[in-house]
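Morning!

This is the sequence you dropped in the shared folder:
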Amino acid sequence: LPFAEVDETITEADTMFEAYRKTHPDRCFHVHYDDYVKDVRALEPMFEFLGERFDIETVERVMSVRLDHAK
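The structure's back. Tokens below.
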């Protein structure tokens, strides 16, 4: 697919996701990639939202695994 078509599809999806998030805040949690890549503690509010315990050692271990499925 041409870049412009992919970019347009992503923009449309982002718009729909944001609209849903705003109308269903009790069901949605927005995670900012740049924030949690910089500091995994940025994921702690997501764990609270899900009602799960945040274990930084486990999260750091999981986040340190480099994915290679797209190679």
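Headline: Helices lie at 3-23, 33-38, 44-50, 56-63.

More detail when I'm at my desk.
O.
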